[in-house]
Amino acid sequence: MIPEELFAAALGLQSPWFIDRIEFEHNEQSVVLSKLHLHIMYDPGHVFKNDSGKECTVYDRVERKWRHVNFFQHECYLYARVPRIKQPDGSVTTVEVPWSRPGSSFTLMMEAYCMAIASSGMSLPKVGKLVGLESRVIGRMIDYAVERGLQRSPLQQVKQLSIDETSSKKGHNYVTILSDAKAKKVVGIGIGKNKEAVQSGIQEMEARGSKASKVKEVAIDLSPAFTSAALEYF
Fold it and tell me: The domain containing residue 149 runs over which residues?
C-alpha cells in the first residue's frame, strides 16, 4: 500500500475523495516542529448532488486548509480545492467535505480530540498549549458542540423552576443555574448572578423548547437581582 493510500485510510477518506500528494516540511532544529501536509483531491468525473439529490454542475473551486490531529509527533494539515456547485435556482453553494463541519478550520477528529481533553477537567489554556492552539479557539469548538448538543436534546415544558447561583471556581466567578425542580434537570445557565444572567438562562431554556410564559412556579432566594428577574420574566 502506497503512503497516500495509508493516510487516506487513516483519515477515513472515501470516493470521490483521495490524497493526491504528501509533503513533509522538515525542521532542522526539532523533529517535533516538523509538519505534514496532505493534499486532497476528488475524482474529476464525479458529479455532486445537492441536499435534494439533484445533480449540479461545478461552478468553481475554493482553496481550503484544515488543522488535523498530529500524525506521530508531526503537526498535520489538510488541503483541498473544494468545489462550489450551482443550484437550480442559480445560487452557488459550497460542497460539504466529510472530514470537517462547514465553516471550520479544523477536522472533526481534531475538534473531538480537543473536547475530549477539555472534558477530562483540563483548563482551556492548558488544552491550547498541548495542541498548539489559543484557548479562545478551543472555547469556540466547545461552544459549537454544546449548542449543537442542546439543539438535539429538547426540553419538556418546565412548570416548576428553581433559580440559584454557584461559584464556578475559587473566588467570585459565579454562574446562575436554572433547573426543572420536578425533573431535577439543568435547563439553562447564565454567567454571573445578576438579572442578566437569569435572562441568559431563560434564553437557553426557550431555545430548547420550554417557554418562560408557561412556567407556573419559581423558587428563588430573595436577592434583589433574582426578585427583579422573577417579577419581570415570569
Answer: 106-153
Concatenated DSSP letters for the chain? --HHHHHHHHHT--TTEEEEEEEEE--SS-GGG-EEEEEEEE-TT--EE-TTS-EE-EEEEEEEEEEEEEETTEEEEEEEEEEEEE-TTS-EEEPPPTTS-TT-SB-HHHHHHHHHHHHTT--HHHHHHHHT--HHHHHHHHHHHHHHHHHTSPPPPPSEEEEEEEESSTTT-EEEEEEETTTTEEEEEEESSSHHHHHHHHHHHHHTT--GGG--EEE----HHHHHHHHHH-
**pLDDT tens digits along 53-97:** 999 999 999 999 999 999 888 899 999 999 999 999 999 999 999
Please state the domain count of the chain. 3
The model's confidence at residue 26, banded by pLDDT at 50, 70 and 90, is confident
